[in-house]
Amino acid sequence: MNTTNLTLADPDTPFAALDVHKSLRNIERLQTRADQLGVTLRPHVKTSKSLDVAALLHHGSPCPVTVSTLAEAEAFAEGGYTDITYAVGIDPHKLPRVIALLRRGVRLRILLDSVEQASFVAEASRQAELPIPAQIEIDCDGHRGGLKPDAPAVPEIGRILHGAGCLDGVLTHAGESYFAFTSDEQRLAAKNERDTAVAAAERLRAAGLPVATVSVGSTPTAHAAEDLTGVTELRAGNYVFFDLVMAGLGVCTVEDLALSVVVTVIGHRPEYGWIITDGGWMAMSRDRGTAAQAQDQGYGLVAGLDGHLIPDLVMTAASQEHGTLTTRDGAPLPELPVGTRLRILPNHACATAAQHRGYHVIDSAQSPIDGAQAIRTFWPRIAGW
Predict the structure, then answer these.
(1) What Gene3D superfamilies does this protein map onto (predicted)?
(2) How many CA atoms within 13 Å lie on the side-chain side of 385?
(3) 158-167, 242-251, 262-271, 365-374 — which is least confidently predicted?
(4) Cα separation, 1 vs 378, whole angstroms
(5) CATH (domain of 321)
(6) Is the pLDDT of residue 81 over 70?
(7) Given 3-state DSSP classes, what are the helix, strand and coil percentages for the chain, each rounded to the nearest 5?
(8) Residues 316, 326: contact at Cβ < 8 Å?
């Protein structure tokens, strides 16, 4: 895409805008913390799904990454990444793609939490004459999949995998940390995440099984962890963009949000106190993650093209291609004529980014041109599974 002399006032709306200056600042913050904690940072690329965004993580060089789809794994392998964790429970139909990546020299770790999965992975490994590195998913807070560290199946799974040369370690994710509303709650979630993963690893070792990897992480706990003794790696993904959910938890500030969606005012309904835009849930997603927080941000906060928030204006409703903006507490609507362009800051960066083909890249460290940030380039996203 030729972006010469284009600004956020030029492309057809709605579209995703990514502030590279803010992303770099967010990346540096967590990398510094991981270095202080003495663990490897394995960023989760599911938020950006972009090789160009990932190039910001390690000064352009491939680093260990986490993925949520095999399409991501395959695209990152094409981009030169050779150390990848596929952090979604494996099913047998996907193993041929896993084995194909392993044969290419990619160390692709897979995830499982049952004897059934361990058995078919071990059998596939023997048939391929190739170890398939596998991690046992451990449940630290009841959020999703995984086994409790004291579950009888943990050493049984470990023995099945080890017998085929596949046992790599354990992995856990403190998904409930997204509902830890204070810094103390987030520190406790991080401690519990660490303690649970380390307990599972020690149980396997007590059974005479090797554990190379002890993996933990979520964006809230990664920023709250104070001691990761016994952990080998830290995972997080949302932090590269951040969003209103993270800001509502105090993990970041609204000023740290790197992703926004540019929309255009297309109508007014003054009798209802509405401003209508061309950015509905197809542009923003239906995620209402801040609804459970102290401050409900609707579908997103509203800023001008210069990035400055418009006081009290919120995207409070959405249909497929229409967004509705209203003011808090019945405050007067701002004067925003038809054709006015705005930026909506999202609740959930992962969900909003997934609505777009890629990112129009801006740099807020540079001065706006006629009130709109210049577009430096366009970075495509990886799609599919």
Answers:
(1) Alanine racemase (3.20.20.10), D-serine dehydratase-like domain (2.40.37.20)
(2) 4
(3) 365-374
(4) 6
(5) 2.40.37.20
(6) yes
(7) 35, 25, 40
(8) yes
Same domain for 174 and 292, yes or no, is no
Q: Domains in the chain: how many in total?
A: 2
* Number of helical (H) and strand (E) elements in the chain, helices listed first: 11, 17
Q: Which domain holds residue 348?
A: 250-380
Three-state SS for 109-173 is EEEECCHHHHHHHHHHHHHHCCCCCEEEEECCCCCCCCECCCCCHHHHHHHHHHHCCCEEEEEEC
* Contact by Cβ (8 Å): 324, 274: yes
* Pair 259, 167 in one domain: no
Instruction: Please report the pLDDT score of residue 42 as a whole number.
Output: 98
pLDDT in tens, 193-243: 999 999 999 999 999 999 999 999 999 999 999 999 999 999 999 999 999
Answer yes or no: do 292 and 184 share one domain. no
Is the CB of residue 190 less than 8 Å from the CB of residue 177? Answer: yes
**Residue 321: partners with Cβ closer than 8 Å, 6 or more residues away:** 278, 279, 280, 282, 283
Q: What is the pLDDT of residue 262?
A: 98
CATH number reported for the structural domain that contains residue 79 in this entry: 3.20.20.10
d(CA 193, CA 189): 6
Asked whether residue 2 is domain-assigned, the answer is no
Q: Please report the pLDDT score of residue 330 as a whole number.
A: 85
One-letter amino acid for residue 363 of the chain: D
- The percent of residues above 70 in pLDDT, for the chain, comes to 99
Residue 190 lies in a domain: yes
